[in-house]
Design brief:
Layout: E1 12-14, E2 23-25, H1 32-38, H2 44-51, H3 54-65, H4 68-75, H5 95-113, H6 115-120, E3 128-132, E4 138-143, E5 153-158, E6 164-173, E7 176-183, H7 190-200, H8 206-220, E8 226-228, H9 249-255, E9 259-260, E10 266-267, H10 282-305, H11 309-316
Parallel strand pairs: 7-8
Antiparallel strand pairs: 1-2, 3-4, 4-5, 5-6, 6-7, 8-10, 9-10
Helix pairs in contact: 3-5, 5-11, 8-10
Length: 329
């Protein structure tokens, strides 16, 4: 295939006149001075060296261009390839491991979500409702429209208007679902918002609901489990971005029974723990009964969405992974 040079100063797309389909073109190394123009000043010294990874960039171009579905995912948002040159879900990954992790992540998503869903995800407004919870709150699967360095995919709690209340971003690492971030509301009304959501969820805190959803989602996809990023490996814990991380992920995962394993990730139990209704004081028993019914219905809806997850996983199990139009919130 004849390659066409791009005059863009950022990751972009170009149409080859000899090809019927659009192709992704990442920065070419003949434009080094131009490349410097779009690198944020705060990242220049460290990341300029990574940008000149010709082998990895070319390999990712070939990977994207090998599939119309992948081409569609990057066509309107080619900047989503930036994690290859910066960070992707785990600070320990160098450029080669990021390449391996990103390609394995997309391959697993193709198999578990299906190409029809991924084709619709070309539009960031698309979402798949995984479960209807209570009082108009629902759980969505959608592309991460916040920070793709923390994973390409997202589970999010939404209200009746579709506004995001809480979110968790993730990637598929091997046969596990790796959660790279969990984020809630910000600002002066954040505490009031969390209290209101907790009441709507029958006393279940929204951050606990997100962890529970991740565990059940991994089970619905027939994965080997849900795992969480360790604090020191979180990709935003660098330079001035540190102030954006409002929580300690190590303490967070421990609160929900996770154990830190040799791979450096926090491994959550296969399913969340539940209290025996007989052990709950009588005045709270009704609330817990409604909560557990809500969670059981969430599991049933998730399972119905991905009842072919086992077959897809068996096909993908031999692959190793290295550790438009965006909507407003």
């Amino acid at each position: 295939m004849r390659r066409t040079k791009s005059n863009s100063t950022a990751i972009g797309t170009a149409n080859d006149p000899n090809e019927a389909e659009p192709h992704l073109y990442l920065p070419r190394f003949s434009h080094r001075l131009q490349l410097c123009a779009f690198i944020p000043a705060a990242t220049s010294k460290i990341h300029i060296a990574e940008i000149f990874r010709k082998k990895e960039i070319y390999a990712f171009e070939q990977f994207v261009n090998a599939s119309p579905v992948r081409q569609g995912l990057f066509l309107h948002c080619p900047q989503n390839a930036y994690p290859l040159l910066r960070e992707f879900v785990d600070r320990r990954f160098n450029c080669k491991r990021r390449l391996d992790a990103m390609t394995a992540d997309f391959l697993m998503a193709e198999k578990l979500f299906g190409t029809d869903i991924l084709h619709q995800m070309e539009d960031y407004r698309f979402h798949l409702v995984l479960a209807h919870l209570s009082d108009g709150i629902s759980l969505w699967l959608n592309r991460n429209d916040n920070c793709v360095e923390e994973g390409a995919w997202s589970l999010s709690l939404r209200d009746e208007a579709g506004s995001r209340l809480y979110m968790a971003t993730f990637a598929f690492v091997g046969t596990h679902l790796l959660t790279a971030s969990v984020q809630g509301p910000a600002g002066e009304e954040a505490k009031d918002t969390v209290r209101r959501i907790t009441k709507q969820l029958h006393g279940l805190r929204p951050q606990q609901l997100m962890v529970t959803a991740l565990q059940y989602f991994a089970a619905a996809l027939k994965l080997d489990g849900a795992i969480g990023i360790a604090q020191k490996h979180q990709v935003k814990l660098r330079w001035k971005l540190k102030k954006r991380v409002k929580m300690n992920y190590d303490a967070f995962w421990q609160e929900y029974g996770a154990s830190l394993e040799r791979d450096g990730y926090w491994h959550l139990p296969p399913t969340p723990a539940r209290k025996d209704l007989a052990d709950i004081e009588s005045k709270k028993r009704s609330m817990y009964r409604k909560r557990y019914q809500m969670l059981d219905e969430m599991v049933a809806e998730m399972t119905a969405c991905f009842n072919k997850g086992q077959d897809a996983l068996q096909t993908a199990s031999g692959q190793e992974a290295g550790p438009s139009n965006r909507p407003s919130n």
